[in-house]
Amino acid sequence: MPTSKIVPIAAVARSLRIPLHEIDTFTGWTPPVSPNLIVAVSFGLLVPSRIILQAKYGGLNVHPSMLPEFPGPAPLHHTLLEGRKTTGVTLQTLHPTQFDKGKIIAQTPYPGIEHDAESVERLRDLTAPLGAQILLDSLRNGLFVPPVRETGWCRGGQSSTTFKRASKIGPKDRHIDWASWSADEILRRQRVIGPLWNFAESLVQDKSGERREAKRLIWEHGFRLLQEECHLFPPVGRPIIIGLSKTTKKVYVRTCDGHMLIMNHFKIEGGSTTAAFHAIRARRLAPIPLTDNEAKQFAHDFVTFHSELS
After folding, report:
1. pTM attached to this predicted model
2. Rounded CA gap, 13 and 8, in Å?
């Protein structure tokens, strides 16, 4: 049976002896009494029109972006992924059939507040008090009482503008595209939605002989940027191993904008997180030298993966 996520408002409701209804679907559920007003904050379900119409004043939603920019379930993530240095909060009415299509009745003044957040948690800490204050002020001032006056930075005249949707973050958003993602893009995604991942070819030995098999590599500990100058130019997205001894061997990969990223640890599908060199050797992702003489030669050149990451 599905379990509800524990949220702070539940504890507050219990402490104030306010009736609490925990549901994961509106199907077959009706409020025991008709509410005056519905307020939805960080709520992943679309409140159906039959319930909105039961409320005397309809419903309101607090959304952490400058709507109509970044509508959707992950506005904080996409604000950071797009490198936006300003953000804000919007209070809108609940639309009966669509997310984030209600009337905007209050909003952070354009262009929003400046921020230096690099993580979703930090950005949430900045926007949560703004959302609480804009909701309280709007309730006290009766902005939800008809006729509702629509406001917002984009009202009237920009209906043809296409705004980026803040879609739910999924595996494709973490799948590194070495052909188009710059080093900054990779490191930003690592901070915001990491860990990232790729496929790599592994040599597998079985009864029929040796064959290549794609293995998912999860960059659990991420990457760091090589600061010093590097005179090696391997193909973009094809990791190389450099080092004289087991303790100094490191795994590098070149990005499409010419930078080198260092990988210290990662997880191969079906295994545990381990040092990159040992994981590579165990799964035969690259022709690792085995003898001292090979290791000495290895220090001057480099050994690559069997193919580019995909």
Report:
1. 0.86
2. 9
CA–CA separation, 182 and 222 (whole Å): 15
- The three-point CA angle 264-267-268 to 5° equals 125
At residue 282, the pLDDT reads 65
Asked whether the predicted pLDDT for residue 173 surpasses 50, the reply is yes
Residue 41 forms beta bridges with which residues?
62
Angle at 27 between CA 24 and CA 31, to 5 degrees: 85
CB neighbourhood size of 226 (10 A)? 15
Q: What's the average model confidence in pLDDT over 144-173?
A: 85
In angstroms, rounded to a whole number, what is the distance separating the alpha carbons of residues 104 and 55? Answer: 19
Return the closest-CA partner of residue 263 out of 238, 229, 295.
238
Could you write out the DSSP letters of every residue in 271-293?
S-EEEHHHHHHHHTSS----SHH
Is the preceding peptide bond at 111 cis, omega within 30 degrees of 0?
Answer: yes
Q: How far is Cα 262 from Cα 255, in angstroms, rounded to an integer?
A: 11
Structure confidence at residue 156 as a pLDDT band (50, 70, 90): low
Q: How confident is the model at residue 250 (pLDDT cuts 50, 70, 90)?
A: confident
Provide the pLDDT confidence category of residue 243 given band limits of 50, 70 and 90: low
**CA end-to-end distance (rounded Å), the chain:** 37
